[in-house]
Write a structure and sequence with these properties.
Helix content is 20%, strand content 42%. With 177 residues, the protein is of the alpha+beta class. 32% of the residues are buried.
């Protein structure tokens, strides 16, 4: 069962999207959704953008919090219908966050944009996600994949134990579901 709430966190007045999926609570900080919204491919010349998702596992409450992200960095490949990130630069950002957070911020997935109103993953996306789930060195059982379309975005969760990927949320940038 999926339950979704938009909550206001009083720490700095940041909003979070809270998704309750089975026995897991997934929290996504508003700044992640804002960056995806700002990088939408609205114009015909806009290129795909993407990066990694970082966050923390809160084992006491069985929660995962997506707190941070990378954006396209020098050397990444961006075309109208493709985004390919160079691992080295994004991993350097991740490594710094890991150290600065006393090893509490870790790799939790990927995000990218598509030039369509309601995004769906491509066969290439699905192959990449499954590869990431097999090869990632993160300690999280779950990885998250967000695709931002022009009017909506979708959040998928991959379970590394059974290699399944499921859609857990579809939202509009204006806050409507």
């Amino acid at each position: 069962m999926i339950s979704v709430k938009l909550v206001l966190i009083t720490e700095g007045f940041n909003q979070m999207l809270v998704i309750e999926y089975e026995n897991l609570v997934i929290e996504i900080e508003e700044k992640i959704l804002k960056i995806i919204r700002n990088m939408r491919q609205i114009n015909p010349t806009d290129k795909e953008s993407g990066g990694i998702l970082m966050g923390s596992i809160i084992s006491k409450g069985n929660s995962v919090v997506l707190r941070d992200y990378t954006v396209p960095l020098k050397g990444d490949c961006q075309t109208r219908y493709r985004f390919y990130r160079r691992k080295k630069r994004h991993n350097a950002v991740l490594e710094n966050k890991w150290k600065e957070s006393n090893k509490t911020i870790m790799y939790l997935g990927e995000w990218h944009t598509h030039p369509e109103n309601e995004p769906d993953y491509s066969n290439q996306d699905l192959r990449n996600w499954k590869r990431i789930m097999r090869k990632s060195k993160t300690t999280s059982t779950y990885l998250f994949f967000i695709i931002g379309g022009i009017t909506t975005y979708k959040v998928w969760m991959g379970n590394r134990n059974d290699n399944k990927i499921m859609l857990v949320y579809k939202g509009a940038y204006d806050g409507e579901r």
